[in-house]
Amino acid sequence: MTSNDINLSADSAVSLDHDTLGELKGKPKFKPLSIGREKAIALAQAKHWEGMTHRERAEFQLNVCELTMPFDVFHEAVQKALGRPVFTHEFGLNWGGLVAELRGDVPAPSLEEVLELIPADKRVVIAMGEDA
Q1: Domain count along the chain
Q2: Residue range(s) defining the domain that contains residue 15
Q3: Which residues are within 8 A (CB) of 43 and not within 5 positions of it... i.e. 6 or more apart?
């Protein structure tokens, strides 16, 4: 099942119709669409991500403001789709960069660039190993 297949009952106060999904696909990739709390909860309860590839999960969630799947599922999807470790602070400090990378518009950042996302006064780096 994908998000396109979700058909919530008419009794539900929440519905995700094809117009909403069309809006998601047509929106600029750097401005996630807000689908509202109720729709996000309904999607999560329906486990809409089951049956999606990691890339589909990443693309969907990166384009929706509200979290519609468990964060660990989303995090894994982004890492597998990008083929690299993604640090949790990247979600808060480089959302647009993750989207651009997923689209193939920019290369993956270096570890130094990822660390530089953290404000200098909050950054603590511990070097370990023989060269430390």
Answers
A1: 1
A2: 3-122
A3: 3, 6, 16, 35, 68, 69
